[in-house]
Amino acid sequence: MRVLLGGLLLCVTLAGAEYDVVVYGGTPGGVAAAISAARLGRSVALVEYHRHLGGMTTSGLGKSDIETREAIGGLFYEFTRRVHGHYVEMNGPQSANVKLARDGYYYEPSVAQRVMDGMVAAEGKIRVMTHHRLMEAVRSGQRLTAIRVRNRGSGEMVELRGGVFIDGTYEGDLAAFAGARYRVGRESRAEFNELHAGVVYQDYETRAFLPGTTGEGDERIPAYTFRLCLTTDPDNSRVLSGPPADYDRANYLGYLDDWRSGRFAPPKVMKEGVGYYAPTFNTVVRAISMAELPNRKLDVNMNPRALGFPFAGINHGYPEADWEERERITARIRNLTLGLLYFLQNDSEIPPDHRRLANQFHLAKDEFKDNDNFPWQLYVREARRLVGLYTLTENDTIVGPGLGRTRVHADSIAAGEFPVDSFPVRGREAGHDVALEGYIFMLDNLTRPYQIPYRVMVPERVDGLLAPVAASTTHVAFSTVRLEPTWMAMGEAAGAAAHLALAGGVEPRGVNVNRLQRLLLRGDHVITYFSDIDRKHRAYAALQYFGSKGFFKDYRARADEAVDATTAREWWRLATGRAARGEAAEITKGVVRGWLKADGLEVEDSEWISQPRDSVTRGELCRLLYLATEAGQGENGPVRPAGNGGGG
Predict the structure, then answer these.
(1) Do the beta carbons of residue 407 and residue 395 sit within 8 Å?
(2) Which residues contact 504 (CB under 8 A, 6 or more apart)?
(3) Which residues lie closer than 8 Å to 314 by C-beta, 6 or more apart?
(4) Residue 596 and residue 614: Cα distance in Å, rounded?
(5) CB 3.0 to 4.6 Å from 596: which of 296, 472, 549, 601, for a disulfide?
(6) Count of domains for the chain
(7) 107 occurs within a structural domain
(8) HEC per residue, 457-510
């Protein structure tokens, strides 16, 4: 076979294999998609560019980015349970490490790797292919039918044919190779009427807009960095023997200005449970942000509040670059990161006590052993974004006028919850001495738990493909979607959707979303966030499901309160598509049985029927409607525009 590679026509021998589902991209979203499909009986190929699975979760991001734990369930919740179990087994339930693991939401990279690899290995239907690079996508008409990948070690080319393909990459590579339309950069305010879109200067303490904010769109993207895993254990420390080859201390002198001006003081509002590492406050070491992990380790991020932050703009061109250029950009950011650590520990202009503090933190010798103790995954915060059947916007993530919750989507397949939060896109500029351009810090005053519609992962025209990671959102909305727990929820939904598409003989765009939602809800998935129920509630799945159908106007289900007649009749209409037959001044079991009989609906719920009281609670009615309408959810049916509005 003749294949075009980088402009050279080569003759290669092409091996081939066929799977139900092919997932390209071993990020947490891709891993969740593979596990989800495999658990539903599908054969899966899981292909990853790097030598490891897990993306940022196993490459330094040891602090789960999640503010509202109840909003994310499913496979991510299972992952945290397994992490927690690991530390309990290794250290005992009352140990300091178990406390530092915070119920499994904080972890060492090596532990995350062990847990995630174990979850994949437990599924016998997944073939893992790490260290493979996507070379070509094969289409028949508008349908993706195969991909060709090259083993980065041996050079062997392999063709993977599949029934459904899932793009699990941070970069949206598979969608782009398949010819799907995508976006790079920032929309203008006018395009989707988003308050924080486009060019923005914002005070990160007050959230007030600063002079220079225009809202104009451009192609800039948030800065990329690495998330380091450092240790304070001398016996486990890999001490830097010198600076990286291209070290230039001038890159970091701005941090001294930040310290002298008081910018490294503690936040004015200290959030409970965030995991601040207080010893670095009011020192130059605050150039990096730290959170404690088990076993004397720390999750280390680069502090974007600093005007001396040198990482913005270096990633320009990365999303659409080939891998050779991406590796050059990655190496530059890696060296800049190591250079910062060296600067803090050694530069003579750093105050001696600050240097002594910085020299407590070193690369951990027991992490990333095959990569010189340095994380292998660049923190690609945003790259390409699919243009799908729906575009999620900032307005989907906020509570609008007259509403008690965010926009409702009838095809919701996951909940998002992290505040809008974007790293800077430009470095320090003259005349801008409060914040770097593009830095939007944790809009927890605006962002509320929201629903993510299935349509954001379905391309406009390309069939046979889902993109749960590089999903269809605006830049602003992507800054809240782009968290690993949310991506795992979306990946899990993509795997289940692939299964239903294959079972029904339809394209992913034709999957019956009602059936998909019910399938997901069997596994403690969250598609609607409520503030007053938990996974143990008997009506939990029903409340989640009907939360996507317009039953609830705010974040309270009030599941155990008696349902009033007006609400009951409205819910009946929304669930069945028909008005309830017969008047009722109050709702009793007899009334509900009569409605069921009149509509020819039967449901076995003897526990509720046998209860001595005659009143009906909101949760009970939801559960009965959920069971009564389940038989009507076939395997097929198109994705229809749904909810109370859309972004496009």
Answers:
(1) yes
(2) 510, 511, 512, 634, 635, 636
(3) 223, 224, 329, 332, 333, 336
(4) 16
(5) 601
(6) 2
(7) no
(8) HCECCCECEECCCCCCECHHHHHHHCCHHHHHHHHHHHHHHHHHHHHHCCCHHH
Question: For residue 344, what is the enclosing H or E element?
Answer: helix 323-346
Q: Print the domain residue range for 312.
A: 228-371
* Dihedrals phi, psi of 440, to nearest 5 degrees: -115, 115
The letter for the amino acid at 531 is S
Phi, psi dihedrals of residue 158, rounded to the nearest 5°: -130, 135
Q: Are 45 and 30 in contact (CB under 8 A)?
A: no
Helix (H) or strand (E) holding 571: helix 565-576
CA distances from 425 to 308, 320, 428 (A): 13, 17, 10
* Selection from 280, 402, 247 nearest residue 350 by Cα: 280
Of 321, 338, 371, the position where a domain reaches its end is 371
Q: In the 8-state DSSP scheme, what is residue 53?
A: S
Q: Predicted confidence band at 613 (pLDDT cuts at 50, 70, 90)? A: low
| Neighbour count for residue 269 (Cβ, 10 Å) | 7
What pTM, to 2 d.p., does this model score? 0.94
Q: Look at residue 203 and tell me if it is in a domain.
A: no
Measured between alpha carbons, how far is 53 from 112 in angstroms, rounded to an integer? 10
Residue 173 lies in a domain: no
CA–CA distance, 259 with 262 (Å, rounded to integer)? 5
How many Cβ atoms from other residues are within 10 Å of residue 433's Cβ?
A: 12
127-148 pLDDT, tens digit each: 999 999 999 999 999 999 999 9
Residue 595 within a domain: yes
Q: Residues 569-586: pLDDT tens digits?
A: 999 999 999 899 887 888
Q: What single-letter DSSP state applies at residue 440?
A: B
Distances (CA, A) of 418 to 75, 187, 642: 18, 20, 23
Q: Pick the last residue of a domain from 319, 343, 371.
A: 371
Q: How confident is the model at residue 39 (pLDDT cuts 50, 70, 90)?
A: very high
* Helix, strand, coil abundance in the chain, percent, nearest 5: 35, 20, 50
d(CA 392, CA 406): 12
Strand pairing of 412-416 and 450-453? antiparallel
